[in-house]
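Re: beginner question about structure tokens

> Can someone show what the tokenized structure looks like for a real chain? I only ever see the sequence side.

Sure, here's an example I had lying around. Input first:
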Amino acid sequence: MRTRDHGTTAPRPTDWALVLLVLGGCASEQQAIEDQCRPRVERIRAGLRTAYTDREAPADVAPWVGPIYREFVASSNIDTRASMLDAAVGRTIHGCYGLADAFHGAATADAGARRAAMAKLVPDALVSCRCSGVDVESLGFLLRLSPAP
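And the corresponding structure tokens:
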């Protein structure tokens, strides 16, 4: 605020109370988001310890995943399957940029440790971005299709 004789004035006490109220509300909202994110991420962490062997995609994934999964299973061409998986994983990620580092870390792990690296790094990245912009269930399912040992 500007005044004629002093340039700016300090915020009134009621202004600070409003600021604290708003910040407190944001903090509790962020905590609620994180509380919803963690159990979803823990399901991914547990799921990445094994490959997916069912004939159909699970019910909690996005509707577009089922047809891709059926096409993935029907294909015997490893390059086609890798391309399909790459494109599908890309569709699940919108804004959690820490996942790029997680995927890179998993890809550069020793051959026998890639799935374990993915099971640690990807969930950690999801938690750090609070699952924001990510279709967590679809991503977790698609990552289980990865042939990485």
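Each token stands for a local structural state, so reading them left to right follows the chain. Residues 18-27 have pLDDT under 50 and may be disordered.
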